Structure prediction request, 401 residues.
Amino acid sequence: MLKKIGTVELKPGMFVVDTGISWLENPYLYAHEGLVGSESDVRRIRDEGYLEVFIDTRRSLFGRDPDGVSDEEILSGALQQLEDPGVLEPQVPVAEEMRKATVLYDTTVRYARGIMDEMRDKGVVDMSEAEPLVDSMLGSITRNTNALVGLAKLRNVDEYTYTHCINVGLLSMVFGRHLGFGPVTLARLGLAGLFHDLGKARIPDDILKSPRRLSPDEFEVMKGHPGIGFEYMRERGGVPEEVLEGVYEHHEKHNGLGYPRGLRGEQISVAGRILAVVDVYDALTSRRVYKEPMLPHKALSLMYGMRGQDFSPGLVERFIRCLGIYPVGSVVELNTGQRCVVSEANLRNPLQPRVLIVHDSKGRPCSPRPLDLAGQTAVRIATCLDPVGVGIDPGRALGAM
Ligand SMILES: [Fe+2]
Prediction:
């Protein structure tokens, strides 16, 4: 199991994991993967100023943790503590919604690129187009959540800055809807997500694109980005409170160790808490120049290990329930050897989503064939795969239904 601990708890024999979490926003996270050899290693890590570290308890030398507990079992265990969410059924099939959602996603990427460039170059942004775009995204989510959530996985590495803003916006709306919020609040969560990193446009490039770990002074500058975005939008006027709170508080942590204000627990607004979960999930599952994307179920399992520290108690569990153990767009192998793309999450039984079979049992590409795993007794998901490694493009497969 992946667990986040303070470096004060780090011991020789523990196995450190590189999660790919950006050290740009987490310079105090030690992420040099491998076994910690000795007490002097531990001292060095602490002396270099690292405060936190992710460890994999299954790979430690202590061997106390039961082997063979999969991420799926951890996630299933987390979900057993939650009540049945009451499923919001899609209004249209995902294939029908996918066409509209693709056009909308591309339009929103162009808009997001525009606002970040304007903010950087002119110090002002035209926010008037944001509301209709967010309303359209909400419409798509209401018709069939799976289309936009699937598209969020198609991100282009070069466009990360923009797709990340959009994904945080749309996933915040999806999560908020799952939590039972109405359309007005959901649209505000969408706007907060879209603008959450606006302040980064004012952070100097030598910090924002630094190829090395930031110095404490540089990190102080970086920590200013939520406040810069917040101040800009507050001065501009007419921006709803939830949007301002979401932008200002998306890096606050439940345990008070976040920034910029070090708020803790219920001091953090609901919008701030939701954005914090979604922001980390999208960052972990994104492909970046310097890292491969983490598989969604691994990212969720890792975030489950951060519950009660970074995130409000219970919130990660609900996010897992919202996305499913195998979120839409995940590539999985069945016990039959067939490979599939998850096309619709099953919120009642997250281990049994709807899938599209895209490779036959011998690993040969085949024309996509839908299969509902719900109620199947002999066929089940055996493992989750890296789509690139097996040559499957989940977006194309989903669009091809
Ligand atoms: Fe941020």
User: Anything to note?
Assistant: The longest strand covers residues 365-372.
